[in-house]
Write a sequence for this structure.
């Protein structure tokens, strides 16, 4: 929640409609930085434990509804997460959000919601549908790597100012030029995303390690139930060697050739 506050109520929020670079910082905080600690806090699990029975049943019904299953499907969340910034910055929609307070606030909610929809199923802390094996989650996140490069670098190299008419109407006489400000903002969209990705990978790796440990303990308990807690059969390479045979061969014929055990064989 501190990250959301910084993005919307600090100097970043004050200048988000004046400087493109401030808007880029806000975008990264809401879509990339805030969802990870929010997801690690397991808000759905906390709500299910704290709410009384009727709201809890309603929440479970919503979480397992068809709409939530669709919205949390990995391919859907990946597409929304990747496509949304390109639609925003490379269309007239960005300038429209700068001119309309309603669209501007809706854009903030959109960034945060899309980030949560993408990162929470990957973290796997809360009981959401469409749970994937950790290796698939990792590969899906790796597929995200080129996105911010393709988003940020063209903005850095472009000589055309996005929402240029709006920014020129502001008549800003301080700070970087419009082109320099856009260059800085493009770099933020690129580099900031990489920094947040490292933080996510640390959190993701922690969850993966905890999952493996829980799974190992579960398998150990299952084996104890099936075979007891006494020592089980030793592996074949530790079995005593039978006379005249390879290691691990049980002595069943007294060292004689079994083909001679029966006359006429």
């Amino acid at each position: 929640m501190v990250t959301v506050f910084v993005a919307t109520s600090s100097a970043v929020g004050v200048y988000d409609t004046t400087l493109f670079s401030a808007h880029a910082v806000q975008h990264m905080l809401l879509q990339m930085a805030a969802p990870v600690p929010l997801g690690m806090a397991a808000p759905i699990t906390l709500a299910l434990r704290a709410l009384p029975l009727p709201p809890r049943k309603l929440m479970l019904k919503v979480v397992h509804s068809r709409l939530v299953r669709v919205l949390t499907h990995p391919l859907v969340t990946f597409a929304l997460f990747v496509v949304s910034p390109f639609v925003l910055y490379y269309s007239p929609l960005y300038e429209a959000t700068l001119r309309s307070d309603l669209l501007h606030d809706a854009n903030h909610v959109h960034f945060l919601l899309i980030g949560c929809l993408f990162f929470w199923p990957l973290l796997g802390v809360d009981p959401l549908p469409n749970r994937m094996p950790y290796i698939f989650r990792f590969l899906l996140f790796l597929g995200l790597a080129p996105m911010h490069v393709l988003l940020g670098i063209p903005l850095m190299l472009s000589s055309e100012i996005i929402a240029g008419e709006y920014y020129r109407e502001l008549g800003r006489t301080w700070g970087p030029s419009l082109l320099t400000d856009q260059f800085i903002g493009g770099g933020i969209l690129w580099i900031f995303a990489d920094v947040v990705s490292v933080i996510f990978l640390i959190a993701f790796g922690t969850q993966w390690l905890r999952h493996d440990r829980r799974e190992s303990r579960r398998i150990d308990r299952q084996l104890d139930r099936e075979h007891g807690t006494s020592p089980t059969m030793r592996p074949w390479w530790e079995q005593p060697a039978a006379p005249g045979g390879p290691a691990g061969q049980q002595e069943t014929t007294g060292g004689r050739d079994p083909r001679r055990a029966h006359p006429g064989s």
DSSP finds 14 helices and no strands in the chain. Residues 178-227 form the longest helix (50 residues).
